[in-house]
Amino acid sequence: MKNVTVLGSGMIGSVIARDLAKKYKVTSIDLLEENLLPLQYYGIQTIATDLRDAEELRKNIRTADLVICAVPGFMGFDTLKTVISEGKNTVDISFFSEDPFLLDSLAKDNNLTAVIDCGVAPGMGNVILGHYASKYRVESYKCLVGGLPKERTLPFQYKAPFSPSDVLEEYTRPAKVVQGGKVVVKEALSEPEYVDIKGIGTLEAFLTDGLRTLIRTMDVPNMEEKTLRYPGHLEVIKALKDTGFFSRNFVDLGSHKLRPIDLTSKLLFPLWKEEPGEKAFTVMNIIISATSTEGQREITALLLDEGDPDEKTSSMARATGYTCTAAAELILQGEITAMGIIPPEALGKEERIYTKILQYLEKRNVHYGFRERLIT
Question: Are residues 152 and 36 in the same domain?
Fold first, then answer.
């Protein structure tokens, strides 16, 4: 039986560990004992330690056949670098801000596979674009995505399905889009628009920096990603941002200094924390315009997932975690063999891999609905 080590046991990391434990020997590592205790029920070995300690990390992954990186974004790059240095195949969903291709040579030198950004978006959105770009000449790609509570509570109307610090990173990091074949940097939260999603109603979308590797790897002249929230959320967030609550500059309070964003994250965590059994949904709507031999095509892909109460898994944890474990399964079974840093869109370009990922998700009741039509 192969060994898998999962780094990080938050909402998504714990779902990844439970899914893989059905077939493999899994070890979960996290700083917080309370995150690890529930996993022991599923026969998962747990280790409580600080993953920022590189030596401790190396020691605890030595017997792993595959490592999953599900740590917060601020520590993702260094964690992945250590894992690669140890010669371990890996799938990463930490969505760190640094350029992952800086680790490509290191991964190739160690003859290993490192699939990065393998969640829902980035992740399955990339896989889907990669698939259709291998069939047609894609001219535009738009991804609208968000995870939201079913119950709307003012003022935020939001619960964070992952670390609030990572959500705030989305709200502050400048958004790169592609327009007319050129990369354009825009302010996060900008260009809001209302969109109607079947089965949900009207949501508000705004720019965030979700294209990531697509900017480098895909020759598509127009691309953007927008985050979906309930109408009204953006107004509150922009007020906090404009006031300085998201600033990373230290403020002198006399007896000590602090960064406003650290305080904001600490205060928002209890307000945004999903409670056990709280109903939420994840929605992703992808719109692709492409040219085929038959003419102009519009392709849409829609995910609407409400979680699994029987498995006690939230929608975002399922949509993100099972994409990650699909890639992990394919690496462990020798289906993904390319060396180096592998972005999800590269997986979508291989028909066999694309089909197996969708089948893996279908078996776990994560369903993507596709519509493709000629418009000229």
Answer: no
Task: Please give the sequence-ordered ranges of beta strands (E in DSSP) within the chain, or none if there are none.
Answer: 3-7, 25-30, 45-48, 66-69, 90-92, 113-115, 137-149, 175-179, 182-186, 193-197, 201-207, 222-229, 251-252, 257-258, 280-292, 295-305, 340-342, 368-374
Tell me: the pLDDT tens digits for 156-212? Answer: 999 886 666 778 888 999 999 999 999 999 999 999 999 999 889 999 999 999 999
Residue 23's domain is classified under what CATH number?
3.40.50.720
Place of tokens 């401790």: 56
Rounded to an integer, what distance in angstroms lies between the CA atom of residue 282 and that of residue 368? 12
What is residue 195's three-state secondary structure? strand
Query: What backbone torsions phi and psi does residue 12 show, to the nearest 5 degrees?
Result: -85, -45
**Residue 6 CB-density burial (10 A; 0-12 exposed, 13-18 middle, 19+ buried):** buried
The upper half-sphere exposure of residue 119, i.e. CA atoms within 13 Å in the direction of its Cβ, equals: 28
Instruction: Report yes or no on 342 lying in a domain.
Output: yes
Q: Last residue of a domain, which of 270, 286, 305?
A: 305
User: What is the distance between the alpha carbons of residues 133 and 127, in angstroms, rounded to a whole number?
Assistant: 10
Determine what percent of the chain is predicted with pLDDT higher than 90. Answer: 79
At position 4, the amino acid (one-letter code) is V
